[in-house]
Specification:
The protein is α/β, with parallel strands linked by helices. The protein has three domains: 2-88, Orthogonal Bundle (Arc Repressor Mutant, subunit A); 93-162 and 265-293, D-Maltodextrin-Binding Protein, domain 2 (3-Layer(aba) Sandwich); 164-262, D-Maltodextrin-Binding Protein, domain 2 (3-Layer(aba) Sandwich). Helix content is 44%, strand content 23%. It has helices at 2-17, 20-27, 31-45, 61-88, 101-118, 135-138, 170-176, 222-230, 240-248, 278-291, 300-307, and strands at 50-52, 57-59, 93-99, 122-128, 142-146, 155-162, 164-168, 190-193, 200-204, 207-211, 217-219, 235-239, 253-254, 260-261, 264-270. The strands form four sheets. Strands 4-3-5-15-6 form a five-stranded mixed β-sheet, with helices on one face. Helix 1 packs across helix 3. The longest helix has 28 residues, at 61-88. The protein starts with a helix and ends with a helix.
Length: 308
């Protein structure tokens, strides 16, 4: 089989280059050896693959059909060998990652120290951006994205649930009171995150309320939303991966605790390929290990109860 594969590789280069001499130079073989390989392949197949003249080479009908199948077989073999070699090798080289600013600062940057300690030959290039990044055009290996994903040819792997919570500083609640039903939010100062949908969808039992918040601050950063809430500026709708620790410490308190906000999800997104590279696979596995299930940021209420 090994000789047959070699013959197939030699034949495909001769067919594509249209010359025994050119194929010989590329394969670092003698022209005689290349010609002999093709002849032996033809003899074993019992079919003429190439028409030889003094001026040029051309494929026969059988040669055209064989070339197409031959290239597919060789591609599958090369891919299989790459997959096995990649899985056995240590991740190395540059890993380009993109994610949102708040999630990156809160969750991705803290886990990189251990990742790079485990894999010292890996270099991380992390882009934090609250905008859509074209992975293919920008040469990104993997993105961590939150929320509903658009249909695309990209591969998406769900990593965790992402919860949102209504919260405010105790000083704000003491000053302005606490809403009893979702409709009460219209009478409160709300901190609006422009990176989230304009309407807050709040479930009270089986009833869905769509509230369009308003208030003194509209901003495009979950960190800024949290900091404004901590300063007592109003009620915030924020992801627990940003406000979880503040809820445990009671620097923020939950508002409308009997209501729920629709969950979102965290995904690892990467361009499709026949096999996932070691560096992407190691990174995604590490993120899942670090986050846990349920994710650590969604265990703020358990942590608070344990501290009591």
């Amino acid at each position: 089989m090994g000789d047959r594969l070699t013959d197939m590789r030699v034949f495909t280069r001769v067919a594509r280059l249209g010359s025994f001499a050119a194929a010989a130079r590329e394969l670092r073989l003698s022209t005689t050896a290349v010609s002999r390989r093709v002849s032996e392949l033809e003899e074993s197949l019992g079919a003429r693959l190439l028409r030889r003249t003094t001026r040029r080479l051309s494929l026969t009908e059988e040669g055209t059909a064989y070339l197409e199948r031959c290239e597919r077989v060789l591609e599958e073999i090369d891919d299989l060998e790459s997959t096995v070699a990649d899985q056995r090798s240590s991740p190395r080289g540059r890993l380009r990652i993109t994610t949102g600013v708040s999630f990156g600062q809160e969750q991705i940057v803290p886990l990189l120290s251990e990742l790079l300690s485990r894999h010292p030959e890996l270099v991380v290039d992390l882009e934090l951006a609250d905008r859509y990044v074209d992975l293919v055009a920008d040469g990104i290996d993997v993105a961590i994205r939150i929320g509903r994903l658009p249909d695309s040819s990209l591969v998406a792997r769900r990593l965790a649930t992402c919860r949102f919570v209504l919260c405010a500083a105790p000083a704000y609640v003491e000053r302005a009171g606490s809403p009893v039903v979702p409709e009460d939010l219209s009478a409160h100062a709300c901190i609006v995150d422009r990176n989230t949908p304009r309407a807050w969808e709040i479930h009270s039992g089986s009833v869905l309320h769509r509230i369009v918040p308003d208030g003194p601050l509209h901003v495009n950063s979950a960190h800024a939303v949290r900091d404004a809430a901590l300063a007592g500026m109003g009620i915030a709708l924020a992801p627990t991966f940003v406000v979880g620790r503040s809820l445990v410490s009671r620097d923020l308190v939950e508002v409308l605790p009997g209501c729920t906000v629709a969950d979102s999800a965290v995904y690892a997104v990467y361009p499709p390929s026949r096999h996932l590279s070691t560096k992407v696979r190691v990174f995604v596995d590490h993120v899942m290990e670090y986050i846990g299930d349920p994710p650590a940021w969604d265990r703020w209420d358990t942590a608070r109860s344990a501290a009591d």
